[in-house]
Amino acid sequence: MSVDEFVWQWTEMVMAASTERIREVVESYIRLVASGTADEVVALYAEGATVEDPVGTPVLADRAAIHTFYANLEPLDTATRLVDIRIAGGEAAFHFEIATRSGKRTWTLAPFETMTFDDDGLITSMRAFWADGDMVVS
Q: For this structure, is 53 an active site residue?
């Protein structure tokens, strides 16, 4: 067995879900945060998943709390954009922008988020890295 074959087989054994599946879920997540419903976003999460947004706040550890968190976004006029993503070992780290418009003002936040995934590519944990000072108002 060549080194390349070994690395490929090892990577396949370690990964909870394929890189393609994880990328698909992250892209869906970013799209749905802007224009989806809480039900659609929560459907990306596995049973027993956790959300810590932002890091340092209480961890949401049940489906109802996670649903309520995303339901707060539904009425907002929001746009999102993926800036960069890295996927390895069944996890993803990504940087994206979320811009919320109200009247003539726009609030823009560009958090870094990490996610872990189960074998089916459902999110098992999400942590968002940002603070109040990261919000830009224009």
A: yes
